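Regression test case RT-17, inverse folding.

Input:
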């Protein structure tokens, strides 16, 4: 996960944690009303809302069928030195519902390509979280509630980008894999690797190589495929001269 600059505003730090995570702790309400916590893989919608691929046989899916309320905690890995409780984490809460939207499924599988092995089984379904509350702990003694509207991305007017997203990502990974790697290594300071783009949105692009992730934030908001191309070409040139 990409480390946060010390001066990053709280809402932006929460968004970074949300976009850069791969797994999180999911709390649901058990049959007897007691909390039940699972480790789950997640991805995000274009606006940042979490997406899941759940088996109907899992305990948390059965819990959600009875009561859709949930809480999800995403924590950055503890630093090698210092107090592990000083690591940032964000907790989202609200309700989870089944999603049959093709875009949600595509986004999850681009983020977690290995899930293709079982995603087609009849009992595995995509679910999406509707967020009602956000709580950020930026480190020791830095806890605060955040407005959902400040954490989730406003994607109004970005319908054209959403329609083109799958093609953009496939083009970047297929024809411009070198540029994707340069974004990660030279612009974001991440170790070299087989970096791939997993999603693009008006604010930036999500990258992954094995279990490492990175968030490429654009210098301006985009809403169309043409604007995406302009920004990505400019960033590639910047990376090559870095």
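Golden output:
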């Amino acid at each position: 996960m990409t480390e946060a600059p010390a001066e990053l505003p709280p809402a932006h730090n929460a968004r970074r944690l949300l976009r850069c995570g791969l797994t999180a702790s999911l709390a649901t309400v058990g049959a007897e009303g007691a909390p039940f916590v699972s480790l789950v893989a997640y991805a995000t919608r274009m606006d940042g809302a979490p997406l899941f691929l759940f088996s109907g046989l899992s305990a948390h899916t059965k819990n959600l069928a009875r009561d859709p309320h949930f809480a999800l905690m995403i924590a950055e890995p503890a630093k090698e030195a210092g107090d592990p409780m000083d690591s940032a984490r964000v907790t989202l809460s609200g309700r989870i519902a089944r999603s049959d939207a093709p875009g949600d499924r595509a986004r999850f599988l681009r983020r977690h390509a290995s899930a293709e092995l079982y995603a087609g089984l009849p009992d595995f379904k995509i679910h999406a979280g509707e967020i009602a509350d956000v709580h950020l702990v930026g480190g020791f003694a830095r806890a605060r509630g955040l407005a959902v509207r400040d954490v989730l991305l406003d994607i109004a007017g970005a319908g054209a980008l959403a329609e083109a997203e799958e093609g953009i990502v496939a083009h970047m990974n297929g024809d411009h894999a070198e540029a994707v790697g340069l974004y990660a290594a030279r612009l974001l300071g991440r170790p070299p690797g087989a970096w791939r783009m997993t999603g693009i949105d008006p604010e930036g692009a999500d990258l992954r190589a094995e279990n490492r992730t990175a968030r490429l934030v654009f210098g301006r908001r985009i809403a169309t495929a043409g604007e995406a191309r302009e920004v990505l070409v400019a960033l590639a040139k910047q990376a090559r001269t870095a």
